[in-house]
Amino acid sequence: MALLQQTPRLSASEASEIARELYAIDATALPLPSERDQNFLLMQVGAELARPWLVLKIANGADDRALLEAQAAAAEHLAAQGVASIRIVPTISGAVIAELPPRWRGGHLVRLATWLHGVTMASVPHQTPELLEDLGRHLGEVDRALTTFDHPALHRDFYWDLANGVALVRRNLSLVEDPELRGVIERIVARVEKDDVPRFARLRRSVIHNDANDHNVVVSADGDLPHQRVAGLIDFGDLVYSFTVADLAIAIAYAVLDNPDPLEVVETMVRGYQGAYPLREDELAVLSGLILLRLCVSVCVAAEQQRQRPDDKYLSVSQDAIRRTLPKLEGVGSLLQNLPMGNLPKRSQILQKAPDPIERRRLIGPNVRLAYREPLTIVRGWMQYLYDDKGRRYLDAYNNVPHVGHAHPRVVEAVTEQMRLLNTNTRYLHESLVRYAERLTATLPDPLRVCYFVNSGSEANELALRLARAHTRQQDLIVLDAAYHGNTTTLVSISPYKFNGPGGEGAPPWVHVVPIPDIFRGAFKGHDAGTRYADSVSGAIDGIRATGRGLCGYIAESAPSVGGQIILPPGYLDAVYKVVRAAGGVCVADEVQTAYGRLGTSAYAFEPQLVVPDIVVFGKPIGNGHPIGAVVTTAAIAASFDNGMEFFSTFGGNTVSCAAGLAVLDVMEDEHLQAHAHRVGDAFAARLRALQDRHAIVGDVRGSGLFFGVELVKSRETLEPAATEASSVVNRMRDEGILIGTDGPHANVLKIRPPMPFNEGDGALLADTLDRILGELK
Ligand code: PMP
Questions:
Q1: Is there an atom of ligand 1 within 6 Å of 557 CB?
Q2: Does residue 484's CB lie within 6 angstroms of at least one atom of ligand 1?
Q3: Alpha carbon of 368 to ligand 1 centroid (Å)
Q4: How close is the Cα of 42 to the center of ligand 1, in Å?
Q5: Closest alpha carbon to 219 in 83, 118, 133
Q6: Residues 604/423, Cβ–Cβ less than 8 Å
Q7: How far is CA 384 from the centre of its chain?
Q8: How buried is residue 40: exposed, middle or buried, by Cβ count under 10 Å (0-12/13-18/19+)?
Q9: Ligand 1: centre distance to CA 618 (Å)
Q10: Which atom of ligand 1 lies closest to the CA of 620?
Q11: Predicted confidence band at 223 (pLDDT cuts at 50, 70, 90)?
C-alpha cells in the first residue's frame, strides 16, 4: 500500500499558514486523526465565539485530482438534493481544489470543507435505537440522492470496495497473525463466496460513501439524548462506485461492534434505511454477508498496514472490537442465519392498534382457539424468532411449520419469483413438479417412488386413506390412541384425540384404537415393550376378522407428537408392519410433524424403527409455511388408485408450491439442518435431562434432534399428570419470551419443537428459563 508512504506530514502551524494564504482565514489548526491524508480542524481566531467550523484537508500524495474533484462534487450534489452534508469552501481564487505551493513540500492537494456541527457517533456513549434508526435513514437519503450522481474517477479499483472484498481477504489473510481470527475469517469468506457472490451481478450499483463508520458519522449535539439526530457524514475519501447496499452494510458493520444485541442494531438500521430508500430482495439477502465481509476486510487491511506503520494507532482503531465481535457474529446463532432480512414491516404496516379479541370472537368461529393466557399479536418472524406488535422478540420453540426458519429468504425468494412468473396446476407440463417429486422421493427409500401433491396434512391423510382403500378394498383401520390426523370428517373419525375428546362422538365401528407405545406411562416399559405393544395390533386384527371384515391398514405418526412427543420403543413398527401386511393391510406413516430431519438422526422418524411404510404422509414443514401436503407411495398402490377416476387438486402441486418445496429441500441440504438439529439436540437434551435431577415434577424427558417432550407429573410413583402446572409453565415461559406448548392425552407434556435454526444458545436459554420457572412452582 504505497498510499501510506505518501501521507502528508504538515505541522499545525503550517496548516494555519495555508488557511491564511489560500483561503484568507485566520485560524488555529488542530490535527485530526486520519488514515492516509491529513485533516486539520480550523478554529477561527478573533471570532466572537472561537468555535471550530472548518476542516482543512491535505490529500495524500497518491490521491489524484480527479478523485478529489469527485468527492467535492458528491458533497455538493448531496447538499443540492437537500441532504445534510459538508460543503466545500473555495480558495480566494475560486478553486475547489488547490495545489500546495512548493514551500509546503508541494504536490499535495488541499480542500477546505465546512464543519458539521456536533460530535462523532463514536463519542456518543449510548447509541440509542432512535439514533441508529436515524443513521439508517440518513444513509438511505444519501444513497437515494447519489443514484443521480456519477463521476468517472469513482469507477476505480479500490481496496475498500466490497466488490473486491473476497479477493482482498484471500490475498491478505495470511498476514492475520491470530490463528483463531484467521479461521473465523476463512469460514465467513467461504460462506460469502458461496451464498452472496452469486448474487453480486444482480445488485444495484451507484456511488456510495463507503465508510460510514462511527468516526465518520456526525451526531447533532442539539437537544436531549433521545432527540439526537445524525447531522451528516464526513470523510468522503472512500467514495466509490459499488454495490449500493454496501453503504448500509458498512455502517452496520461498525454499529454492531461490541453491541450486545447485533440483531436489534441490524433491524433498526435497516428499518431506518428502508424508510428513506427501499432495499431490494437481493440486497437484503446479501446484507449480512457484506456486513461480515467488511469486518473481515478491515482486519486484513489493518494487518497489512500495521506492518508498514506499527505505531499508528488510527490504523487499528476498530480492530480490538472486531476481534471481540467477529467470532460471536460468526459462531452459533450466526448473524448470517439470524439477520432479519426481507421482512421488516414499514412503520405504516405495523398494526396501529392491537387486534381486539372480542371482535375476533364475533367474526371468527368461537372454537378457533388462541394460544396462551395472554394471547400474542405476532407481526413478523425471522428464523427461530417471532416478533410481536411492540417489537418484542420471542424464541419460537414450538412451531415446526417454518422448518428452515420463519421467512427464510431463499424460500421467500423462490415463491416470489415463481408467483411473478406463473402459478398454475398439474394439468400442464412443468419442470418444477417433476423436479420436486424427484427430489422428494430421493429422500425416501425404495419402493416409495410415486408422489401426489395436495395442500395440507389433512388432505394428504385423506388421500392416503383413499389410496389404502383403493389398494385393499377394505375400510377397517387401526389407529393409535390419542392420535390426530386431521380436520376433515373422515380424519376426525380416525383421530381418538378428537373423537374421544370434548365434542367427540367416539370411534365409528371401522376404527380400532390400540394403545400408544409409551414406555413412560404405558403398560409396557421393558426391553420387549416394542413387541408387546405390537401385540395389541394383532389383537385388533383378530377383532376385525371376528366381524367378518378385512383390514385396510394401520396409520400412526412415526413419533407420536400429538400423543405426547413419544419415541417408539425399538422393534415396535417392524412387528406392527409385519402383522398388518400379513393381514393384507397397508402401513401408513404420518410424518406431518416429524419429516425432514426433525429427530436429527434421520430424515424421517420411521427410519430408526427399521421399516419402510407403504404410504408416507407429509404436511407442515415441507413448504416452510407455504401450504403443501404430499403423499408418497409405491407404484403398486398408485396403480390400484388409478381406477379410471382422475385425481386432481386445484392447488396441489401448483408451480409456486413446487418452488417453495424445492427451496426448502435446498436449504435443508445447504445448511445441513438435520446434522445441525442432531448436534444442537444432543446438547439441549443434556440440559433438559439435568432438569429432571433438579425438579421432581419432571417425570420424563424424551426426544432427540429438535423434537422433545418434557412430561410433568405430580408424583413419580403414581405418575399423576401435572396438567395445570404444565399449562402454567407454558404461560410463564411465554411471559419470559419463549414459546412452547403442551400435548399428550393428559395435556401434561411440554412440547418443544422449534424451527430447525434453533441453536445451542437458544437451547441454553430455554433450559435455564425453564429451570427458573419450574423452581417457581415449588
Ligand atoms: N397429521 C398430524 C400428525 C398432524 O399433527 C396434523 C396437524 N396438527 C395433521 C395431520 C393435519 O395437518 P393440517 O392441519 O395441515 O391439515
A1: yes
A2: yes
A3: 15
A4: 71
A5: 118
A6: no
A7: 7
A8: buried
A9: 9
A10: 15
A11: low
CA of 629, closest atom in ligand 1: 15
> Residue 556 and residue 479: Cα distance in Å, rounded?
6
Task: Establish whether residue 455 lines the binding site of ligand 1, counting it when its CB lies within 6 angstroms of any ligand atom.
Answer: no
- The alpha carbon torsion through 323, 329, 331, 337 (nearest 10 deg) reads -160
State how far the Cα of 93 lies from the Cα of 107, in Å rounded to an integer.
Answer: 18
Q: How far apart are CA 585 and CA 476, in angstroms?
A: 9
Ligand 1 atom 12, closest CA: 457
Cell of 573: 413398527
Beta carbon of 471 within 6 Å of any ligand 1 atom: no
Rg over alpha carbons for the chain, rounded to the nearest Å, is 32
In whole angstroms, how far apart are CA 27 and each of 2, 21, 120, 195?
32, 11, 22, 52
Return the C-alpha cell found at 439. Answer: 427430489
**Residues β-bridged to residue 396:** 739
* Residue 614 CA, ligand 1 centroid: distance in Å: 19
Give the integer Cα–Cα distance in Å for 710 and 564: 9
List of residues 6+ apart from 670 with CB closer than 8 A = none
In the predicted model, is pLDDT for residue 340 greater than 50? no
Asked whether 748 lines ligand 1 (CB < 6 A), one says: no
Cell digits of residue 377: 399479536
Question: Is residue 709 within 8 Å of 752, Cβ to Cβ?
Answer: yes
Q: Nine-digit cell at 545?
A: 376378522
Rounded distance between C-alpha atoms, residue 386 and residue 378, angstroms: 7
Count of alpha carbons within 13 angstroms of residue 4, beta-carbon side: 15
Distance from residue 590's CA to the centre of ligand 1 (Å):
9
Q: Is 763's C-beta closer than 6 angstroms to any atom of ligand 1?
A: no
Distance 629 CA to ligand 1 centre (A): 10
- Give the Cα separation of 300 and 76 in Å (integer): 33
E strands, 526-649, where? 551-557, 586-590, 615-618, 629-633
- pLDDT tens, position by position, 520-542: 999 999 999 999 999 999 999 99
Q: At a CB cut-off of 8 Å and minimum separation 6, what does 48 contact?
A: none
* Closest-CA residue to 516 (of 482, 485, 468, 558): 482
Q: Smallest Cα–Cα separation from 527: which of 569, 574, 573?
A: 569
Instruction: Enter the C-alpha cell of residue 520.
Output: 413412560
| Residue bearing the bigger pLDDT, 116 or 500 | 500
Cell of 352: 396501529
Picking from 619, 573, 614, the residue whose alpha carbon sits closest to that of residue 594 is: 619
pTM above 0.85, yes or no: no
Label residue 71 by pLDDT band (50, 70, 90): very high
